[in-house]
Amino acid sequence: MGKIDFVEEIKKLKAEKNAVILAHYYQTADIQDVADYIGDSLGLSQQAAKTDADIIVFAGVRFMAETAKILSPKKKVVLPDMNAGCSLEESAPADKFQAFKDLHPGAVVISYVNCSAELKTLTDIVCTSTNAIKIVESVPKDQQIIFAPDKNLGGYINRVTGRNMILWDGACMVHETFSANLIKDLRKKHPKAILIAHPESEESVLEGADYIGSTTGLLKYSINNPAKEFIVATESGILHQMRKASPDKIFHIAPTAKNGHACQACSDCPHMKLNTMEKLYNCLKNESPEIILPDYILKAAKKPIDRMLEISARFGL
Ligand code: 13P
Ligand code: SF4
Predict the structure, then answer these.
(1) Quick one: which atom of ligand 1 is closest to the CA of 39?
(2) Is the pTM of this model over 0.85?
(3) Domains of the chain (ranges, CATH numbers)
(4) Whose CA is nearest to atom 5 of ligand 2?
């Protein structure tokens, strides 16, 4: 058998099966180019909730595909690689989180969508990086809040809102490697470049940023800001859409370091990058691996996600 033209075959299968491909900005360029919708975590959840496709092929990581399943439980949701996890999700096992919650009775739990479906069942309101500040601000000021699982995003929200949320100790394995010192060196070489950063980055990186936002926020900012050169502190996949939208601008991914040494590959999320065109084609063809969640999780995890979508809609997000 000759080589498979994945782009053509995926398009054919999509039409035959009435399937939709939702891809996160952190996917490889070829996957983004074959997707029906490319977005950040909030945009992808909104698409999953309203699609009339029979099958949702989620080109992203498992917690995202689970969120799609929770929002559209009657649809078949497939993920190219079931091993596509997330360091934030791993940092917060539900049993340990329940014990932590028990230490703070009466606290409202706000969880970043980057967590397991089970953790969402222990949550009052889910948030994404796009709506996190609005969601936190929707809770009365004197109400204690537990924020899980990202301490960097939680710390950033505390600084912006003046709250003192109790933070779970989790971090994104990609964003925590951006190096404030190496970024400073790069800025010396490119003095006109603007630094834009995702709030999953550490405080030392965010401190120097000209703009902080979700992946969609960063993309829009790079389009609307007249600057011609940007240093981007988020996963490398986003550069594809930035370069497509602004071919006349220069984009550098922010430098990363691990154990004190510069690290070239650290801005690639090893989970996001598990997906390939071949796996995408196979999962569409075989309708597998499929996201299956127990009924009680589907029901209990939907409530905090619905609350997030309601609050987001109130603010036009
Ligand atoms: P957003 O999609 O909300 O920008 O979050 C980025 C991320 O890390 C997803 O895994
Ligand atoms: Fe998780 Fe970070 Fe990868 Fe996003 S980039 S999936 S937060 S490990």
Answers:
(1) 2
(2) yes
(3) 6-85+272-286 (3.40.50.10800), 88-172+298-315 (3.40.50.10800), 175-263 (3.40.50.10800)
(4) 269
